[in-house]
Task: structure prediction
Amino acid sequence: MLFQPSIRSLTVLAPAKLNLFLRVVRRRVDGFHDLETVMTAINIFDTLVFEPVESPEITLRVSMCAPRNRNSAPTDPIPTGPENLVVRAALLLKEHAGVTQGAQITLIKRIPSAAGMGGGSSDAAATLAGLNRLWKLGRSRDELLELAGRLGSDIGFFLGGSSTAVCRGRGELVEPLQLPMGLHFVVARPSSGLSTPAVFKHCQPGQSDRDVGEFLAALQRPGLGQMVRLLLNDLQSPAERLNDQVRDLRERFAKLPVIGHQMSGSGTSYFGICSSARHAGAIASRLRSEGVPWVQIARTCV
Ligand code: C5P
Result:
């Protein structure tokens, strides 16, 4: 998350994430699932601009930012009312801290929605951190993390201050992690998305016996060979059953000279790991020429 203060407003860049490893350990009695997941923030950002207003209202304006070489918008329509996590995060912080003033928030979307890239969660984290600064509340990271946990499972990762982390529990227990080198990706999102609850509902917990410890050890070794053999996403099979476009992307990536590939989060975005930005660019050109609607290159945030 990057902060750009100015006299009248505060701009925050909210990154997307990819899941390099995602094991669904068990279904819990509260309906959530215990996970072991390795998430890394990438340099595809939504932009949020926060401006103070004297009236108590929180208002949200959303504008889409379609990347070059694309015909269709990268996200489904984004709500501007309390269904939007940005508004919920702002209202929660305002109530928790007893703030009387309001804020005008402008959200410029670049991260596709319903894609498993954490866009909504990252926007919510940026709102908690951004308004904490704008309203000069001085709330600690732990306090913001507690609020984040009430809003959603992935939000803590984006507040955590580390661009890569192992997340456990339902995703809210964040253990920062240092990657030995930056990773390059090509990321694609088909024309349709998937709902996270639907994908979790169709997954079968405890299917894989793979351990996140083994993956973390491979991540620390030089070269990418060991790590890519241990990529895992237990949500990919149910996502492919629910949405043919995910299977189609897997089949396309399997024919491409990428180092490794898999779906991110609950989908439908799909990524390939590449050796360099140039390699990622070449793969992206091929996917675009095949008509994949949203394709971007990215690298891990530092
Ligand atoms: O926490 P979040 O709002 O992101 O979760 C959305 C939905 O995804 C939950 O309502 C739940 O159905 C599912 N989920 C889950 N286990 C998790 C995270 C999310 O079952 N660890």
